[in-house]
Amino acid sequence: THQWRGIIEEYRDRLPVTDTTPVVTLREGGTPLVPARLLSERTGCEVHLKVEGANPTGSFKDRGMTMAITKAKEEGAQAVICASTGNTSASAAAYAVRAGMVCAVLVPQGKIALGKMGQALVYGSKILQVDGNFDDCLNLARSLSENYPVALVNSVNPYRIEGQKTGSFEIVDALGDAPDIHVLPVGNAGNITAYWKGYKEYAADKVSSRTPRMWGFQASGSAPIVRGEVVKDPSTIATAIRIGNPASWQHALAAREESGGFIDEVTDREILRAYKLLASQEGVFVEPASAASVAGLLKAAEQGKVDPGQKIVCTVTGNGLKDPDWAVAGAPQPVTVPVDAAAAAERLGLA
Ligand code: F0G
Fold first, then answer.
1. Does pLDDT of 1 surpass 90?
2. Distance in angstroms (rounded) separating the CA atoms of residues 192 and 209
3. 151-152 and 79-83: which strand pairing?
4. Most CB contacts within 10 A, which of 14, 153, 286, 342?
5. ipTM field
6. Which candidate, 97, 19, 83, 31, places its Cα nearest to that of 58?
């Protein structure tokens, strides 16, 4: 019997590890690539969803974190730190447990989803809520890592990018070649950087015959790359990507230019529409930030930017259970019935 071994063992020859590297893993990766029927119909393309919410802590961050914590362990670190809009902290906290390390987390006060806060707490990390936004948290984390004995595991850590590039490998391995277009939500811009690196490496080694065009989408209230300037007070309901000064900004621009892609914005309304569509039409429950990729694809299709017949992959980055408020909000309250089959049948419209 074969069990998926986690991205480091599965892609060992393409990652910076040796035989003596102490691998810290929760067997992340190996996530489903799910054909999306309605999105394919709407675009006239073959659309797949890379469902990263199926990772051990519920987001794509686990791919990067297994590498970052493994290398921190190899280098003898005893403590790690990150700034986060929630998912990075959940992942760092979990992998720190596996590594026997202390994990410190800086989050913007009042701006992370409850599920993510719960994860950081239950994994036993040391959390500080910062009176500022994510960009302030990242500056603080950088400064602490430079002046105290604590390793930074944000995506400015190159090992994070190494781990996250395996998302592209899995897609090419599953489809037999790279897709025509790859669509991602963009926040701190680490993931679009990582996917592009992965696609380039596979193409250079002739594992794939081509690279896809990279399409990235930011939330309108937090779209510094689209605007071409830092957003001082970013806002969006998609708290995961509420970022005004992305650390990998230049790398995201390079991915866009080199791949012939683009980076655009989607409104919160468009994000919520895609969020509901994904759950109710595709059976895939994601968190709002993840729906930005699909919202972007639908927007591009409506603008006539999507030629039919192409293969398209949308990464949906985080699990819907992280932030269920948006699923419950505005939905009708379920009715209460007595323990009575006839009454239940009537309410269900079966009778
Ligand atoms: N989707 C989700 C669910 C995220 O949590 C993030 C980033 C992104 C998309 C954007 O990815 O930053 O690589 O462009 N979350 C970070 C965090 C910032 O702290 O968890 P990116």
1. no
2. 20
3. parallel
4. 153
5. 0.99
6. 31
CB 229 within 8 A of CB 172: no
CA of 342 to the centre of ligand 1 (A): 47
Concatenating the DSSP letter of every residue in 220-234 gives: GGG-HHHHTS--SS-
* Angstrom distance (rounded) from CA 257 to CA 314: 19
The pLDDT of residue 160 is 98
Atom of ligand 1 nearest to the CA of 190: 13
Looking at residue 283, its pLDDT comes to 98
What's the DSSP call for residue 322? G
Buried b (16+ CB within 10 A) or exposed e, 113-131: bebbbebbeebebebeebe
187 neighbors 317 (Cβ within 8 angstroms): no
Q: Is 218 in the pocket of ligand 1 (CB under 6 A)?
A: no
Cβ–ligand 1 contact at 84 (below 6 Å):
yes
Query: Which residue of 317, 321, 322, 323 sits with most ligand 1 atoms within 8 Å of its CB, as the best mutation to test the pocket?
Result: 317
Q: What is the pLDDT of residue 330?
A: 80
β-pairing, 181-185 vs 33-35, is unpaired
Q: Residue 261, SS3?
A: coil
Reported residue count of the chain is 351
Lookup: tokens for 26: 């929760």
Residue 342: per-residue pLDDT: 97
Q: Is the CB of 135 under 6 A from ligand 1?
A: no
Contact, 322 vs 112, CB < 8 A?
no
87 lines ligand 1 (CB under 6 A): yes
pLDDT tens figures, 205-242: 999 999 999 999 999 999 999 999 999 999 999 999 99
Q: Are 55 and 66 in contact (CB under 8 A)?
A: no
Classify residue 177 by its DSSP letter. S
| Torsion, Cα of 167, 125, 188, 242 (10° steps) | 120
3-state DSSP assignment of residue 127: strand
User: pTM of the full predicted structure?
Assistant: 0.97
Residues 137, 106: contact at Cβ < 8 Å?
A: yes
